[in-house]
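Structural biology now treats backbone shape like a language. To illustrate, our science desk offers a sequence and the tokens encoding its fold:
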Amino acid sequence: MAFAEPLQETATPLTDPETGGTLTIDLDAIEANWRTLARKLLTVECAAVVKANAYGLGLEPVTAKLAKAGCKTFFVADIAEARRARTRAREATIYVLNGFAVDAGMAFVELNVQPVINSTAELAEWDAFVSAQNWRGGAAIHIDTGMNRLGISADEAAALALRLQQENHGITLLMSHLACAEIADHPLTAAQIRLFRELRMLYHGVPASLTNSAGIFIGATAHFDLARPGAALYGINPTPGRANPMRHVVELTGRILQVRKVPQGGTVGYGAAWTARRASRIAVVALGYADGLLRAGSNLDRKSAGTAIVAEKSCPIVGYISMDIACVDITDVADNAAHRGDTATFIGEKIQIDEVGAAAGTIGYEILVRLGPRCHLVYRGG
């Protein structure tokens, strides 16, 4: 998806007659969330994770906003994202989480970005490459402390610490990743912190990083030298079960194409999966799963799921969400309060992204990265 340059803030959400939906992204809120983490909760450096196109919200405008705010370190998934981030953060340190690939080697030099090394085989390839190129770009070492996903083992990390005896060892960051930070008092979290602290002692002088968004809220014991928030920047609640300390960032609205009456006993949408228990009014909205509204969030006869805000009132989505259409029961909205051409809000201040994820049986992360492939994009605070 191509993202336009940020539009300036407007008093009301912009719409586009050529699209059915509008996705509004509040860059000021993203900056405010970063500053909340960086200045109120941390005494160490606060980086920003902008992988997956900044969680679906536009890597270039988000990176530019945070770099201007003072963020000096960014994490991306791959070299393609690193190339985009570098255009907006020319002096920042950029780490590539998916590591080093020989075929993309020269891009690390060209862009002056650093791989996160995830295995000893990958480290050997990296060493051979930097030796051949006589380059001193440096790399992060990722230790697996319990996620059992990417990273070298604890034993490998202990052995690798001997490398620091070399003058140009090339290790610029030691990092690991918490598996259960958002689950209060999970025993794996304490075990990971303890193991990482022990290994970090072998890497004297090398900055260390462990915490993700939720990990920041564990406290200073997990902070080390660099925090790596991602989801919290974009409004995801990093403290499930408690009030969200972050500002909401996105608003998704859809154009009402038609308001129609459905008699009691009438059905709506594919499979006749929802039946009106009373005479109802239905707003047919130009948003569907092609726009990021998951079909799993549909409201069926035996399942209550997602909602939308129409005329300031919360209304249930009814029937299956289809590719281009969602139907909303506006029977309880005052007559003549909603018309063709008005908008329904599916994500916003009154419907948080985590609620939308829960209604679809998933997490807010998945909703975010799917939003807006066809929507009119509006950036506030650019």
About this structure: The first strand starts at residue 21 and ends at 26.
